[in-house]
Amino acid sequence: MSNKQNSAKFSDNELVNFKPLFKLTHDQEKGVQPAENIWLSASAGTGKTQVLTARVLRLLFQKNVLPRNLLCITYTNAGAAEMSERITQRLAKWVRLPGDKLFHDLDALGIDPNPENQKLARTLFARVLDTPGGINITTIHSFCQKLLSTFPTEADLIPGFQLMDDREKSDIIRQCMNILAIDAENNDNEFLSLDLKKLVERLGEHNLIKFLAKCCGKEQQFWSIADGDGASRFAQLVSGVEFDGSWDDYFIKAAHNENIDQNFSILADGIAGEKSPMSKNRVVILRQWLSADNAQKISMFDDLKGVFLTKELTPKSVKTGWSKDASLHELVLETAEWILQILMQKNLAEYAEIAASAIRTAQYFLKIYKNEKRNLALIDYDDMINQSAKLLQQSAMGDWIKYKLDQRIDHILVDEAQDTNFDQWSIIEALCDDFFAGAGAGKENVARTIFSVGDFKQAIFSFQGTSPLNYSAAFERFFERIDNMGSDLNKRHLAESFRSTMPILQFVNAYTQYAGDEPLGEGHSDHYSQLGDTGRVTLLPLFGPIENENEDDGGHEHVFDTADNIDDDEEEYGDQKFRMADWLAQHIKSIIDNPPFLKRTNAYLKPGDIMILLQKRGQIGNLLLSRLHEYDVPVAGMDRVKLQDSLAVMDILAGMKFAVQPDDDYSLACLLTSPLLGWDHDKLLKYGLRPNGKSLWRHILSQKNLSDDGDLLMSLLSTADYLGPVEYIEHILNGPMGGMKKFLSRLGQGQQNAIHEFINLAIDFESRHGRSIQKFIMWFEIGDVEIKRDVGEGGSQVQIMTVHGSKGLQAPYVILADIGSNPDKKKDHDFSLFTPQNYEIPLPYPKGGQKTGNVKKAMEKAAQTQRDESKRLLYVALTRAEEHLLMCGVRAKDIPENCWYTHLEQVMQNLHVDQIEAGDVPNGKMIFELTGTHYHNAALNDAANSQNTAKVGNDLEQLPIWAVTAAQSEKPDARPLAPSKVEDAGDIPISNPQMIAAARRGIIIHDILQHIKITSSTLKLPQIIVQYIKDNYPHDDVQPDEIAQLILNLLHDKNLAKIFQGDAISELPIAAVIKGRVVSGRIDKVYFEGQKITLVDFKTSKKSAATYKELPKPIARQMALYCAAMHKIYPNHDVEAKIIYTQYAQMIDIPGAYLDEIINQMAQI
């Protein structure tokens, strides 16, 4: 067929829309040589996907290479689909492409565009279509699932097995936990019952299930350890315990030490003449030790600790309580070190005991889990990898399987290789075995190749079991095998970015130099670009606490849509998260209203060009969503959302709970204030006041003016008896309530995905468990369901997502919004130790003194690994930006040593970028800015005009006016005031372990006081409190008995004890207009007694006040506003206020006159 004929068949419209291939750069072309084994390191934005696609196309031009001989393994299904689409579409176009354009495409790929190759190019599309399944471009999991489905018997699986989803796996784990508990009661296993009891006491039921879930997929690791006593010996070995048998025996052996006895004798004689009580006490203890028998010495160990060690387990000062004779000081320190060594072994032995219990319990549980999966013909994702590796590593079986598949693989391509874990590499290596089998390594005239593309710097998925060390180790193994057969594995690098402009890349280069080789890998090259020097990198100071109540924060009031208690876990960041979110939302609003021209895209900035990145989902993301909505900025929801967190789903669930239990006042209140009924809180408070013992539902029925609402609620009740969960949800959405329309109108279109996923979940539940609404509610609430929103580049909405979710994406304007987060402050308490075979096994988190020896080393290593990954995560975040990069965040009083801001500030300083003044940036005013030469100077403000900016090649220009022009402030009464959001600026910062422990204790007491209810007898209350702490705070180093006694002491106050009776209301929301402003909040405890109302608020502040006059002004002001609001709502009632400092269980009464005086002094709220 002639080129002319082909051209005639290629329509004019197709010619207009046709996009020729970009010509490969020199480095890219070196990376796609089809006959070479290549290990390609591709930095962010360097055209990795284009190179991978070009490699596939180049291979198809090789003699004796058929589409079925290729296996391309990608990281995600979306990546596989994108690559398949690119290749298929390109081959389809080549069939009818005019000769000159086909010539260009082949030349761009580095293929000789001679007539023979042009003719071959036009046949490749048909060749791919004729191949069953086409080119095998797939994820490793999809490949394994297909392999196991074809050979289930060989893989020891049930034919027709199904892959579990996450929710189904969670259900089976809970079911296995129930079997485990039953077996512990009835089984003859000498360890099981005691081990399970220890773990429940240590972790609580919820955390024990989480621990066992982490063990799933690690059967090989756990079963490599001997069970029974063997687990105990293993736990002692890896923990660093240096003795066999009991600690008592070890201690007695260590105590029979002539040197120590001699030290004790010398020290006792040396201070015998001292007159201080401390010295006299020490003499008594030392001499008692010298005459004590073994049992007495064991009981005296704590006394010895008190003599030589502080409460923090450090040697006591030799200057206090000892003789001034310097010759004794060395003996004191020597003895203290001896005690520390014994204590370390004692603590390690205690941890080894709980670790052994965890190992034996996990081994037994995993057997149950395996049996349950087999009985149900199910496998999980870990099974797919493990069983496939096992299947292919049996050499004879692997060869036979590949023969039966009639698909001998000659070329393997691995995408995102840095995110491939050890077991996945073992599968790839098994598929490559024939490649390196000496003389049989290749077919006739066919070179069999391995191609890997990845980037050590972008290895960020350790929570999925990956490690960049696996990536490096895989290279070493492949290099050795290929070298042994006399060939080469060529290492190539790509550093030219087709994404980011030079100011972005200059900053990235400085960052990679600063971060170093340990976290980012060796041998990385500087990034460079041909995209010019347009762009800007801006580092804002962290938003910190307001130093005093009158400090100007920009003149803006703020909306706070989270719990109002300032002393909860957000206290460390006080108000700064809210101020930052508000400022950032205004900034985004200003640049959308006055969009800059983006030279990179040759267009003005639009909302879809903005991407906000977070290290993790949490309060900052929710606040940004709220504030952006407030300023009418088009914004998409978070990229991943827990279904249980969806407002629409929560409201539907409240309706279902009401249907099965109409007297559930809380669920009915949630339903009434949802979009379904549309009540506001004033209406709820008005009709919620009812006689004691009368449910809210009965009270509503008795109100004639609420008959319409009563009819709607009655329709929910009447249909619940015969509808299943699916039909009932449909009834709420499309029945008389018209729920779907109301949800979308009030909560936005973003709720549709969550609602549809909720319906799908109900359908799935009914197919497995029946049509009970009550069972569905229980089933839904015990497990998390996460939904993922499709995200892409551009579009019409601002994107908010995690850095992990942004992998593979880019945007002209990128904002890093939480650069102050502390990577060392982990809350999940993951902990692992390694077996002698280098298997990693999860274990319970160590407590207190158990964090020593090998255990401490493992914790420090894990912490360093986490810090290294945090640095790689920052690299990924920085390289999402095309032209603009804005970085901001919040801090407590001190900036964490290893947070992103610390790194970024140092990078700016390394680049010799000076700070400049920015008028609209609160909490610091000074910013770092690195920029190119595209923008003309614009006055930042009068003060900034005199500032010299840094220079990068050319004079650094100031921020354009659109970047710093704040959105117009709202009127003072536009938004509600939350009184508890005024932080106690006088609070002492948490700066040492003792203060941290005290703060945690206060939070725990706060939690208990919020939820506690006193019955007629308090005899069992201490046990209840102790068990509650063990179940909910298993990792906190607190004394449950001490907390229980402290709370009991507090309850001895008869006036306060009534607050914790069943009639008291917890977390009561209130709202009222005070001095022209809406005041809204949530009070911890409220008790109604006749015409008197008692308000109690709990504080976990690190310092307390002795009297009400010493209360910090923000707290006094908060309580004054609360009381004023309650007076407004209940004008005929007396209102009293109390503060409880939970760290000390200290109660302070605040006189009403004092609170009235505060309100009168408020000129403006």
From TrEMBL:
Domain UvrD-like helicase ATP-binding: from-to ranges: 21-501
Keyword Isomerase: yes
Biological process terms in GO annotation: recombinational repair
Domain UvrD-like helicase C-terminal: 537-808
One Pfam family it belongs to: UvrD_C
PROSITE patterns in alphabetical order: UVRD_HELICASE_ATP_BIND (PS51198), UVRD_HELICASE_CTER (PS51217)
InterPro entries noted in UniProt: DNA_helicase_AddA, DNA_helicase_UvrD-like_C, DNA_helicase_UvrD/REP, P-loop_NTPase, PDDEXK-like_dom_sf, PDDEXK_AddAB-type, Restrct_endonuc-II-like, UvrD-like_ATP-bd
Protein name: DNA 3'-5' helicase
